[in-house]
Amino acid sequence: MKIFKPISIVSVVLVLFVVSSMSAFAANQKRIDLDATNYFTVSGYDTETSSEWGSNGSEKLIFSDYNSRSPITITYEVDKALVTVILFSYETKQPDPAPHTFTTQETTQIATKTRKIENPGGGQTWGIRTEVLDSVTFHEPGYYHVKIKQDDGKVHNLFVHILKEGEPASTAAPETKPSEPTATAAPEAKPSEPAATATTPDKSLSVTARPTASAIIVEGQAQDFEVYNINDNNYFKLRDLAMAVNGSGKQFEVSWDAEKNAINLLSTSAYTPVGGEMAISGQPKTTTGMLTTSKIYKDGQEVQLTAYNIGGNNYFKLRDIAQAFNIGVTWDAKTKTIAINTSIDYISE
User: I want to staple 100 with a disulfide (CB 3.0 to 4.6 A). Which of 120, 138, 197, 347 is the partner?
Assistant: First the structure.
């Protein structure tokens, strides 16, 4: 004979309340497919909103914002891609030039394929290959721009928003919006930038970068580069330029100092390749460049050069680098050709 023990109505109500409360506050998880085989997941967020960040011709750029008061983790199942994280200052909602020194613990976390991203005051741009890192966790309050660029040129952008204590959940996304590209054709490439050491650098936080269609010759030989035109100036990948003139009397070394958040340039020293130099991403498209906030040193002295981060790479004005290392640069308007020649001196235009 079975004996049924009565359950009080209060107990039932209490259980239902606890279950419903757990559901209401349960964190969400979403899978985003990049293509047939590559994807990533965002987990731990409370709400997902969207923001318009300019346009690409006639197409509006709408990015997702994942909001939470607790940590958000992005896990990658992507074969070959570069993940770039740009930290925004919580107070100004703009990239802040305050440097961030990576600690031994952070370095260890990278080595063990996990990464905790904290907001040290903003401004730090950080990137790593998905072959090395398979997840990123955001803990500290702030805004984070995450860009995933696959080696085939495909790019996916999203924002992570860890809310500050007391901050309403409806707070808008960062107000720093990339400049909207126009539908007009890319302007002709004209290497006529003023010397960065003699003028005040352009400090726009974000700029429109259009692919340069001009032919490029290095030491008399045609050479392919991925070059962008920003405000009528030609911007080259710094390491591509170093590779192009390596072995000449104007060669220079490029190194990164994580402790000082600094790029070091050393005259007449042979360049040490790190991989990825001279790579071309299929058919480059108009995109957005973010101001590089790292300090730049040449032969131990700080120099004022303007650079922009595009797809995880630092792009510098061709003529700024040419002047810094006395590399000859000429422009043939008739053939629309840029020539780089280490056997002649740099001449300002």
Answer: 120
The stretches of the chain forming alpha helices (DSSP H) are 9-24, 104-111, 238-244, 318-324
Contacts of 120 (CB under 8 A, 6+ apart): 87, 98, 100
Residue spans of the domains in the chain: they are: 27-162, 206-341
DSSP state of 23: H
Write out the DSSP string of 316-344.
Answer: EEHHHHHHHTT-EEEEETTTTEEEEETTS
Report d(CA 195, CA 315) in Å as an integer. 16
Q: For 25, phi and psi rounded to 5 degrees?
A: -105, 5
Closest by Cα among 250, 263, 258, 254 to 297: 263
Q: Please answer whether residues 65 and 48 qualify as being in contact, where contact means their C-beta atoms are separated by less than 8 angstroms.
A: yes
Compute how many other C-beta atoms are within 10 angstroms of the C-beta atom of residue 274: 11
Q: What does the CA dihedral 276, 281, 287, 293 come to, rounded to 10 degrees?
A: 0
* 181 close to 54: Cβ distance less than 8 angstroms: yes
> What's the rounded Cα separation, in Å, for the pair 174 and 54?
13
Q: For 124-178, what is each residue's pLDDT tens digit?
A: 556 677 776 778 888 877 778 788 888 877 788 888 888 887 777 644 444 433 3
Total-model pTM: 0.47
Cα 207 to chain centroid distance, Å, stands at: 13
